[in-house]
Design goal:
Strand content: 15-25%
Strand order of the largest sheet: 3-2-1-4-5-7-6
Oligomer: single chain
Number of strands: 7
Number of helices: 7
Bound molecules: S-adenosylmethionine
Shape: globular
Largest sheet: 7 strands, mixed
CATH class: Alpha Beta
Helix content: 25-40%
Order of helices and strands: HHHEHEHEEHEHEE
Length: 231
């Protein structure tokens, strides 16, 4: 599988501990990806909106971090983007590659850690995260922001979605970032252009079962010049 060797050699002290990786890998290795609670066969609605409104335009290149089984990457490829996806779970990437072959699409999938991305500086015009950032340990959030700022070009777009602090149900990640936490983490390298909120829908909770967790989606632009200091 492409990228797996690089993943092993680059994980090191910059990446996440083995136990953390294992949880996601086990989920994908032991469950059909279609049965995973976060899986959707349809592209993320706020991603579709970003394209429809011209906020992101083909051909990119665009990166989906924590791409899982690749729904958003494959949809972007279908829209004419040079699309890449990275995920730390090898079984997720294997599923994404199988789906790509079945659909006769062209995209790049890599096994890798968002904290040590296997891509060069400024490789992407746009990036996307649906549900990866909020699963990281709180202490690693600044490292995540640094890596995203490294691979997204100055002036490039970054669409970030996460389960909202307002979500009080038992499903979802343990650390649900507030808007203030997002601003603190990203404002140094990104301008925050727009934040949208969608409350939870249905008590069953998960998108694939007719519900939705309360969530935020944020449009960010990679700064070309540093944020001005406080006067
Ligand atoms: C909630 S799932 C969302 C998957 C996909 N974005 C979707 O919407 O179907 C979170 C994904 O992030 C991946 N992930 C978590 N931490 C990661 C990291 N440090 N680097 C890369 N991927 C990571 C997991 O393996 C998992 O596939």
């Amino acid at each position: 599988m492409r990228g797996q060797k690089e993943h092993r050699s680059r994980g090191g002290p910059r990446g996440l501990p083995t136990d953390f990786r294992r949880g996601f890998e086990e989920a994908y290795a032991h469950t059909n990806y279609r049965e995973l609670p976060w899986f959707s066969p349809r592209p993320y609605p706020w991603l579709v909106q970003a394209l429809d409104s011209g906020w992101i335009v083909p051909p990119g290149p665009v990166l989906d971090v924590g791409c899982g089984a690749g729904t958003n990457v494959l949809w972007l490829a279908r829209q004419g983007f040079r699309a890449s996806g990275v995920d730390l779970a090898p079984s997720a990437i294997a599923a994404a590659e199988r789906r790509m072959k079945r659909a006769r699409l062209s995209a790049t999938f890599r096994v890798g850690d968002v904290l040590a991305l296997p891509f060069r500086r400024g490789a992407f015009q746009a990036a996307l995260d649906v549900g990866c950032f909020h699963s990281l340990p709180i202490a690693r959030r600044p490292d995540y922001a640094k890596e995203l700022a490294r691979v997204v070009r100055h002036g490039g777009s970054f669409l970030l979605s996460w389960v909202a602090r307002e979500e009080t149900g038992k499903f979802g990640p343990p650390h649900r970032p507030s808007v203030v936490e997002i601003a603190r983490t990203f404002e140094g390298a990104f301008v925050i252009e727009r934040i949208q909120y969608a409350p939870s829908r249905s008590s069953r909770g998960w998108p694939t079962r007719g519900g939705r967790l309360a969530q935020y989606s944020c449009r960010l632009i990679r700064r070309s010049t540093p944020q001005p200091p406080l006067k």
